[in-house]
């Protein structure tokens, strides 16, 4: 097979118990939680009650280090989020859309926000696009959380050509538009912010190029061509399998500044449970030097988290129970499923959560639609 073809492959505890549990979670230090998955938000009562004052919600989370479900209850559903859709997450802050052009960010989905009222920050209106382009989002990223820096930047990739940049100090949003001759290659792309060089990055749908910008209106976006090395050898049947898969590309950066390009291969399936679904393969490329990507099956002590969130990675040894050299993934759009992938053995496995029972007093409740499941990074306690 040609090198061009290879490249194109290219428990439900009470609130008090939860607080006690958080004090014992193993972490970066003694003051952070594990990374975890938020996979469902439900409202108690009947559908329509979310518009009533004081209706309570439950955040359904999963701790992959313990293979354990935790439901956080007693969180009033805020009026600011009525009728909204959760389209992505970065630094533990969700990006919410509602109405025709409204957009905000909030830490509501952080279970530890019960210590104080959730924060809501309205952003400037979404771009005025034809059809429903600004209703569909493929990626979000933030330079930092509002709690870390006042001068943070939010980037949102909408359907088609536009990427919108929001800064709290600006009086208008910056809407970047990709040229007609390249935007098809970036249409479903994810976003990532690099702490190393203070730039946003977006890989092309084929994974051969990157688009980057620093978030300032005066700076022109830059295009980067990736060069691939040490490509793996595949049998004919393996190539046929990968060629039949839907593929997405994700750029992720470690705390030390090491970057990886991850290609995710999925065979769509109709039914989804809490399992690894249609995920068949990941291919990981390590950046050896500027834009030179080398295929690898060893990322050391790191583990990567991919989903409807800005990709991130942590050191597994700092979170006992996490698997090093692995990718934790979640997705429903193409049947990706829920699971963890061993990079060395090239095998996915489903999560095996410990069984729990519902803690809804009435047994009634409904799931909020259009709230995408996503991974949340470690939070300070």
From TrEMBL:
Domain KIB1-4 beta-propeller per the UniProt entry, residue ranges: 76-342
Pfam families: Beta-prop_KIB1-4
Cited InterPro entries: F-box_BR-signaling, KIB1-4_b-propeller
Organism domain of life: Eukaryota
PANTHER family attached to this UniProt entry: DUF295 DOMAIN-CONTAINING PROTEIN (PTHR44259:SF97), OS07G0183000 PROTEIN-RELATED (PTHR44259)
Protein name: KIB1-4 beta-propeller domain-containing protein
Organism listed in the record: Brassica oleracea
């Amino acid at each position: 097979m040609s090198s061009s073809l290879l490249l194109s492959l290219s428990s439900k505890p009470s609130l008090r118990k939860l607080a006690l549990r958080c004090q014992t979670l193993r972490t970066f230090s003694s003051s952070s939680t594990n990374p975890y998955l938020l996979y469902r938000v439900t409202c108690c009562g009947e559908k329509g009650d979310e518009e009533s004052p004081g209706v309570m919600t439950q955040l359904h989370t999963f701790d992959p280090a313990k293979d354990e479900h935790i439901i956080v209850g007693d969180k009033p559903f805020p009026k600011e989020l009525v009728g909204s859709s959760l389209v992505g997450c970065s630094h533990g802050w969700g990006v919410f859309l509602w109405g025709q052009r409204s957009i905000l960010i909030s830490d509501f989905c952080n279970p530890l926000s019960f210590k104080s009222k959730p924060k809501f920050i309205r952003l400037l209106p979404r771009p005025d696009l034809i059809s429903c382009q600004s209703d569909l989002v493929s990626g979000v990223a933030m330079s930092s959380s509002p709690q870390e820096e006042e001068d943070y930047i939010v980037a949102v990739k909408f359907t088609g050509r536009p990427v919108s940049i929001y800064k709290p100090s600006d009086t208008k949003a910056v809407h970047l538009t990709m040229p007609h001759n390249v935007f098809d290659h970036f249409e479903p792309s994810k976003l990532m912010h690099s702490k190393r060089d203070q730039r946003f990055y977006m890989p092309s749908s084929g994974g051969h190029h990157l688009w980057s910008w620093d978030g300032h209106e005066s700076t022109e976006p830059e295009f980067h061509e990736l060069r691939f090395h040490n490509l793996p050898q595949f049998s004919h049947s393996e190539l046929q399998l990968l060629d039949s898969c839907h593929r997405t590309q994700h750029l992720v950066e470690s705390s030390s500044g090491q970057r990886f390009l991850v290609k995710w291969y999925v065979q769509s399936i109709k039914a989804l449970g809490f399992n690894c679904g249609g995920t068949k393969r990941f291919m990981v490329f390590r950046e050896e030097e500027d834009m030179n990507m080398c295929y690898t099956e060893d990322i050391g002590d790191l583990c990567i988290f991919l989903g409807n969130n800005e990709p991130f990675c942590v050191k597994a040894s700092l979170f006992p129970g996490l698997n090093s050299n692995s990718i934790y993934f979640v997705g429903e759009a193409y049947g990706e499923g829920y699971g963890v992938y061993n990079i060395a053995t090239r095998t996915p496995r489903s999560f095996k959560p410990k069984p729990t029972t519902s803690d809804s007093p009435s047994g009634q409740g409904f799931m909020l639609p259009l709230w995408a499941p996503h991974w949340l990074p470690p939070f300070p306690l």
